[in-house]
Amino acid sequence: MSAQLDLPLSQVLVFEKTGRVLWRRGAPTLKGDPLSELVGAYLLEEKGGTQSARIGDHALDWRFVNEADLVVVTAAPASMELDWTGDLCDSVRKKVAALAKSGHVQEALRSSFDPTFDGLEKEFEARLRIRRKKQQADLEARKARSAEAAQRRAEAEAEAAEAAEEEEGAEKTDEDPLARLKRRTATKSSSGGRRRGKKKPTDSSEKAGKKPTVWRDGSQRNKKATAAEVAALDRSGAHGDAAAQQAAQDRHLEEMRGTYLANEGEKAAWDEEEELLLEDESDDEAAPKSWFGRNVGNLLNNVAGSQTLTKEEIEPVMADLRKTLLEKNVAVEVADAVTKSVADSLVGQKVERFGRASTMIKQALAAAVERVLTPKRSTDVLREVLDAKRKGKTYSIVFVGINGVGKSTSLSKVAYYLKEHNIDVMITACDTFRSGAVEQLRSHAKCLDVELFEKGYLKDPADVARASLVHAKQAKKDCVLIDTAGRMQNNDKLMRELAKLVSVNTPDLVLFVGEALVGNDGIDQLNMFNKSLAQFCSDGRTIDGLVLTKFDTIDDKVGATLSMTYKTGQPIMFIGVGQKYTHLKKLSVNAVVNALFK
Amino acid sequence: MLPRLLFLICAALSASRAVAQEQQAVADEPLQAAESADAAPEPAEPEVPQPPKKEEEPASNPIPLAVGGAAALAALALLLGGGSKKKQPAALLLGPSNAGKTLLFHRLVNNEIEETVASMKSDEGIVDNKLLVDVPGHRRLRNEVTKELKRATKIVFMVDAADATRQAKAAAELLYEIFCQDSRPSLLILCNKKDRPGAKTPARIKLTLASEIETLHKTAKTMGSTGDDTQQVAPIDTAGKFFSFESHAPCACTFLAYSAREDKLDAVREFLLK
């Protein structure tokens, strides 16, 4: 269980969803506990479909083995930017799935998975060696090319100095045709690389990180590339004896092939090749080992009437459920992501005996939605305020959002709620942008009989907020509610201002106020708002919670609750259900799940 | 579906014992227990709970063939009745994430010290012939706790004593939920990882938790929710006084400094058997 990894990884492990680690290689614990983060922030939020993420200092890849309710994870130092860990994770998954088919996967993993993994490790090392060689060849070829190009440039410059323009044209036709070809391929390959980067922006970091991936020992080898080899590559200069040239040519051809493959087909072609190889092997190996066990297992399954879910079975049911979600105003993007993630987690699972597949799928989706909606931390604001009060601190909440969604009204409702429970509240008017905003807030403050802190307009809202916090501390207020100007997420100036307000004053809570009736565009807005805030905030802070207004207008179209919590991962702290100050409620997760799936 | 079922019943009635046992796992546990009690008053054996969903577990108790048949009929009734399941009563392992629940669970059930990661699903096992459920502590799985609490007979509640300051809030929330529901299972509160540096004493943890529960008690029912489902009223009555475990907790709570990794299991087993 504690054996070292030969590959440059931190950890490879297989664990049960119930929390038991069945098999592990590498470090016993990782710094920053990325596994807990993985479970909490990805797997339980139905973001498992992404299959890889950078968490803290580690790059994690994960795959589910639904047949046995297991998860396979590989963790590597993120700084190494390895691009083959996903493949390794896939391969491990395949082997574990083969074991799962034969039953008794727990025991099998513990007793006999070590040699299987050793085999995989060897395979991958071989792959990496091949690749390193290719990279080396590639590098040498490039070196040769650049040397040649430099020489040519020098020649051209010298000639250009003495010759006229026509003569320069003549020189170009005189040029060695092979060199010209090489030059052309060089430019082609570089432009190809750029195009790929643009096409797949999501992969760009991975792909970009690929070229400079330099193996510790690989780099040394690269440095050791001898001058002789470089010379052998540079065919334009080599006019030695025939036999040597033949040998050199053969080798060169080989290397050129590698170069071209690497340049044009890049990873895709090579990896597919390797993938096929792996699959073949896993089949060959799995067949004799588990044939007996699998058949007996199948027989038993048939007798007992149990069967596993297939993709074909799941898809139509899931499509219907997705439609229902859309009808309830869940954003398309979110409905797609959640249903896909749940579908992925179901393929291969056993249908509960005497259960119906469609019921099982619906239940799984409902459970997933419930998990996403269930807050990852307490939504009890009053408790937080009381805690702060006990410690003699002033609690601060900033309300942000786009224009006209009901920020000031929501803020007033929260002020009323807190005041009702003997909290000394103060309101700060930081909307120094829209005329009339301060007056509007003043009338609320009068109505609530709560102190209003304002510095008029034409002030930096961050300064106003800071001054108000200082004042609140002196006046021993328990809680400060800060109103900000409504702003569109694409208004850079105002977003910067807001980010400054947040990062300078570090409020205890940043609440995003949004309408419960928003559909797809509302989710985009929230997403962009959050991103833009994170981008401009020095500490990358984002919103901590959501306030949904106008909930009384949506009937059972409660989809926005799911969309917003899924996209942000943050809980819904308050729900506005009317005009009056008392019209403030908590979200009932059960009610939403019922509305979505009844 | 139908041919499969017919085949199944035939198989059961043809009295192949292996099939009957497979069957028995198929049938719903409580139903099966009831059937067996009706059909043949066997010496207490069918009363012993079995871990559901674990086929690989070798069936240890012999089941009369008649029961197999009865189970098949029961299964048929279950299928026609829509297959609603009522869960068996069980002892629960509860507590915030990373308190050491899964480690203790496997020590109790398999007598092995296992490596663990954060759990995503509940696990069930047998300790001294009693069913024990390891319930994940992650906040997002809170509804799981609510569901499992309905069948709780006893609760082993775990807190990381070395991380008590951070876990106090989550732990208090859980305890408050336990206190606010109908059944009154007794609690053993393990202040786990007592051997770690900075581990708080049970007395200290008790105070912190009491103070957190006091706050929760004040704030819990201050705002209605959007659902119509009215939750049960808070049963804690502190009569205006500061909450304390001794005088206000609705069920017996015992605090114990513990190390799930190193300590003997006797204390926990005793509690579970009591």
Brief overview:
The complex is a heterodimer of chains A (598) and B (274). Chain A contains 20 helices and 13 strands. Chain A is of the alpha/beta class and 598 residues long.
Instruction: Tell me the number of strands of chain A.
Output: 13
Radius of gyration of chain A: 31 Å
The secondary structure category of chain B is alpha/beta
The CATH superfamily label of the domain at 381-589 in chain A reads: P-loop containing nucleotide triphosphate hydrolases
The count of β-strands of chain B is: 6
**Termini Cα gap of chain A:** 47 Å
Description:
The complex is a heterodimer of chains A (598) and B (274). Chain A is α/β, with parallel strands linked by helices. Among the domains of chain A are: 11-122, Beta-Lactamase (2-Layer Sandwich); 311-373; 381-589, Rossmann fold (3-Layer(aba) Sandwich), CATH 3.40.50.300. Chain A contains 20 helices and 13 strands. In chain A, β7 (425-430), α15 (437-448) and β8 (451-453) form a beta-alpha-beta unit. Chain A starts with 10 loop residues before the first strand and ends with a helix. With 274 residues, chain B is α/β, with parallel strands linked by helices. Chain B folds into two domains: 2-80, no CATH class; 90-221 and 232-273, P-loop containing nucleotide triphosphate hydrolases (Rossmann fold). Helix content of chain B is 41%, strand content 13%. Chain B has helices spanning 2-13, 17-26, 29-39, 65-80, 101-110, 142-149, 164-179, 202-219, 245-248, 266-273, and strands spanning 90-94, 123-127, 130-134, 152-160, 186-192, 253-257. In chain B, α1 crosses α2, α1 (2-13) packs antiparallel against α4 and α7 (164-179) packs across α8 (202-219). At the A-B interface, β1, α1, α9, α12 and α13 of A face α1, α2, α4 and α8 of B.
